[in-house]
Amino acid sequence: MQDHVQTKRDRSRRWFDSGFSITCLLIASLVVVILVCLISGILWQGAPWLRPSFLWNAHHENQPNESGIGQAIIGSGMVCLICGMFALPIGIGTAIFLEEFRPRNRWLKWFHNLVQLNISNLAGVPSIVYGILGVTAFVYMFGVFGKIQTDRPSDYEIGIHYMYQIKTIGGDYVTFPCEDKFQTLYSVDRPLMVTNAKGETFELNVLPKGASRPSDDGLRSRSVFAGKNASITSQKEFYHMQLPFHKSALAAGLTLALVILPIVIIASQEALRAVPNSLREAAFGMGATRWQVVRGTVIPSATPGIMTGAILAMSRAIGEAAPVLAVMGGVLSSTLGLTNLMDSTPTLPVTIYRWAQDDNRAFEGLSAAAIIVLLLFLLVMNSAAVLIRYRAEKNKG
Amino acid sequence: MAEAQLKKAYDGQWIPSYRLKSAVASQRWQGFVVAMLIVCSTITLATTVGIIVMLVTNSIGFFSSDKVELSKFLTDTQWTLGQSQGEIHYGILPLLSGTFRITAIAMLIAIPFGLITAVYLSEYASRRTRSILKPALEILAGVPTVVLGYVAIVFITPYFLQSLDDGFKAFNAASAGIAVGVLCLPLVTSLAEDALQAVPKTLREGALGLGSTKFETTMKVVLPAALSGIVSAFLLALARAIGETMVVALAAGSSPTFSLDPRLQSQTMTGYIVNTFQSDTVVPGSIAYHSVYAVAVVLFLITLMLTLLGQWVRRRYQEVYQ
Amino acid sequence: MSTIESAGSPVSRVRKIMPSRNIADEPNAHAPMGVEGAAGRGPEKMNDEGLQPAIEIENFDAFYGDYQALHRVTLRIPERRVTAFIGPSGCGKSTLLRWINRMNDVVATARAEGKLRVGDIDVLSRSTNVVDLRRNVGIVFQKPTPFPKSIYDNVAYGPRLHFKINAAELDNLVEWSLKKAALWDEVKNRLHQSAHGLSGGQQQRLCIARAIAVGPKILLMDEPCSALDPASTARVEDLIFELREQFTIVIVTHNMHQAARVSDRTAFFYQGHIVEEGVTDQVFTKPKQKQTEDYVTGKFG
Asked: Do residue A287 and residue C139 have CB atoms under 8 angstroms apart?
């Protein structure tokens, strides 16, 4: 038997080993330090601004005390809803096709491989490129529906009524129907049937230029001077739609759907792959068709996994700013709020971005407060995902 | 079927027989479903085709303009599109240099810290430290990038960088780079950890059994075995950093500079794109509008190549142990 | 109910009281898939070579890609008997079993040539309706594979797939299947609980109940007991022996004692060929081929 001799070299090796592991631990715990600093810094900046009115007020230029994220929350909700309605069914459908329907037909096989290859590449495309795609394909639709511009009425639209509006001498606004929506101004030179704000219809009294103002109040509110311009206005129904989509919530939602589509597909594919093959074989052995196997056996087993993936994808969508910024521009508020899918709307991340850039430093604090709200939303969504995963694991074990 | 009938059925050699559902109907329904699924799958292809068609046609629109030459685009060291007045310069080099500065700083942070964290998690961490570090990494990975951009301008620049050196501008490459580095760190960690976990246990046991310390095992056996996976993690993180938009739009400023100085404003390719679309002054059809697509082509090609390279490297290492 | 419960009787008793029934007398019974010639032959006449085959296999070749797994296999599997496929790993016995109800369709590279008939169905024909085939030929796998649903829903899965059936009929059918699989007494009070709560042996019997609920004529079993403990194995073996009264059973097994216990006929596979086939007793006690003898006496395998 030979005694174990601990040489000097051995000892230094030991020392080095434990030293390395401690260094590793210190560096690894940096992640926790960063996270704590980040969250406490944001809380410190934002907490003073977190008041109930902050949650429902709209943005007001240069009035930080009056500003809030009411419209942004509704906007984010709407955009994410649209995004989820498109991305989730399409993404899950694609994943099912890729995982469960491996074709034997040569052309379909080729198509199958192409789609699979394509998805892993799409996942690496920066989100701003999707933003550009959104601008080109949804906002302007490649110019297919007329020249590329946003300030002109579309040729293809529903749920919108155009009319001209003119201010009478008395200061009231009256409206009259519009025949050509592309003519933005209409010069009044002859009497017309008009409607005022009270809903009364009467003939407009057109006075020649240079005539003296009528003294009677009632007459004044029904008169204009000849040659005065009426400007076009429009009234939109909640179902208002137009092609191209212009800078709208719908375009933003669709763009976000493209951004998260690869994430949904990859997560769903993993969930489907985790379903044991023996279950599929058992269902096939019972004489189920492939689709019956998928619907009755595979999808129920994969649902927790798919839902977790869907939630994570949606939390990516809710925090995504770049594509939304490209598609809708940096909108901070809209006068009427979100009344239909063709309206542009602020979202939470865009609001955070614009406020952080604002020259008025008070908006930095507001921005942090908005971040807190956004992070809380994300926390709730992620907890739901964790809960689903936990319950699924418990059911399995 | 009454109880008595059931009894009789069981007693005898009864076999379940009922009216059958139509097998043809379920086959047809399946055909319809498959057709729908194929339509779904086509959308991903359409996205790619859309991106390529859009980039090609619109950048042709840019380069076919009388005022634009390809050679100047590639060599001019000034970029003034998107600025107010003056002579028009459209050399991509300043934007590239902005992207390069920020990406380099980001990688200087993300690669060493991410890799060491991955090594620690995979080789050393006890269950308890893991249960703290893993969720922390997941949370950090889930933080929206606009939040990190906020942190960069509100905290990193004034409280950290400007206290180090007065030369740091309010918007600079360094703060954006640090924030992007933090953003890429969880990505590097999780991909590198996957690669390390894929190294068979027998390899580690073999090295330890020969008397290596854990450090030596990690450095001389595990890391080389996982090398291609780790390299692929770096490449994917690099692609992510180059494509990152919100952090640079907030923290790096809006004037492109052709320089290596991290204290200067440095607009990147992504920053230019987002600033252009955000402003109301750029009219569709103008040179500035088309220039976005020319920049996007460069951005798209770089990230696509990095992604493809990363996947190729990863596929090679997966083959080794499967 | 007493007649129903007698189903749970042990094998020894079943062997003794096994009735020699004329199927044509049974009003509810389906005509066997072949001609009526099989009628009147009791299961106890196990060495009868004139039995009507339920499955006919002739010159059957099976491939996985370029690899040929089966070479010119010819075999007639009699109805209402238990036929065991034995042989060392990779000899092709599972491949043949999985071809009988085209489970190999799932494997992209698998293909087969030759004649394979189940009753009047030409299995390999492109025009064969696989759904119909699998309804007639049930399969039970090595690992118990209950669906992650309730016990009731597991058994009701097949009937819901294939039958126009109302709720009351379905209740009765589930009860019938579970009784037939000797599981009813153990689960009747928890039909709507998850099937994953059952023990391995119970799960396997549930899979058998699920398979017979659609009224197959043939049951394929791919090493049904290899994942079970000895006690559960004994129960499943008892069950197989009882089911033989009504179903044609083909069982793949690694366990020669199991083959000897449960089967009427045995086919010995080696390297993709059927070396020997015959009445189980004869194959095990007086094998005609040297290879068979070596295998059953444990010289290799």
From this structure: no
How confident is the model at residue A172, as a pLDDT? 83
Using the predicted structure, report yes or no on whether residue B284 has a pLDDT greater than 90.
no
Q: Is residue A181 part of a domain?
A: yes
- Asked if A282 is an interface residue toward chain C (Cβ–Cβ < 8 A), one would say yes
Subunits close to C (at least 3 CB pairs below 8 A)? A, B
Q: In the complex, which subunits touch B with 3 or more CB pairs below 8 angstroms?
A: A, C
* Residues C44-102 pLDDT 10s: 434 455 567 889 999 999 999 899 999 999 999 998 899 999 999 888 899 999 999 89
d(CA B47, CA B228): 30
Owning domain of residue A300: 53-144+246-396
The answer for A 198-227 residues in CB contact with B (under 8 A) is none
Residue A165: count other Cβ atoms within 10 Å of its Cβ.
15
Across the range B174-189, mean pLDDT stands at 96
Q: Which residues of A touch C149 (CB under 8 A)?
A: 300
Q: What is the pLDDT of residue A271?
A: 96
Chain B positions touching A89 (Cβ under 8 A) are 40
Query: CA nearest B78: which of B70, B62, B90, B69?
Result: B90
Quick: pLDDT tens for B194-234. 999 988 889 899 999 998 888 889 988 999 889 989 999 99
Residue C3: inside a domain, yes or no? no
CA B165 to chain centre: 31
CATH number at residue C194: 3.40.50.300
- Three-state DSSP class for A243? strand
CB atoms closer than 10 angstroms to residue A218: 9
Residue A395's identity, in one-letter code, is N
Interchain CB contact of A5 with B (< 8 Å): no
C298: left (phi over 0), alpha (psi -120 to 50) or beta: left
CB contact under 8 A, A121 and B308: yes
- Rounding to the nearest 10 degrees, give the CA dihedral for residues A176, A177, A183, A186: -30
How many interface pairs between A and B have CB atoms less than 8 angstroms apart? 253
In this predicted model, what pLDDT tens digit does every residue of A116-133 receive, in sequence order?
999 989 999 999 999 999
Beta-carbon separation of A149 and B119 below 8 A: no
A365 is a domain residue: yes
Per DSSP, the three-state class of B258 is coil
How large is the angle between the packed helices A348-357 and A70-100, nearest 10 degrees? Answer: 130
Task: Based on the fold, state whether residues A317 and A221 are members of the same structural domain.
Answer: no
- Of the residues A101, A112, A286, the best mutation for testing chain C's interface (the one with the most C CB atoms within 10 Å of its CB) is A286
- Say if C32 falls within a structural domain: no
- Interface partners of A (3+ CB pairs, < 8 Å)? B, C
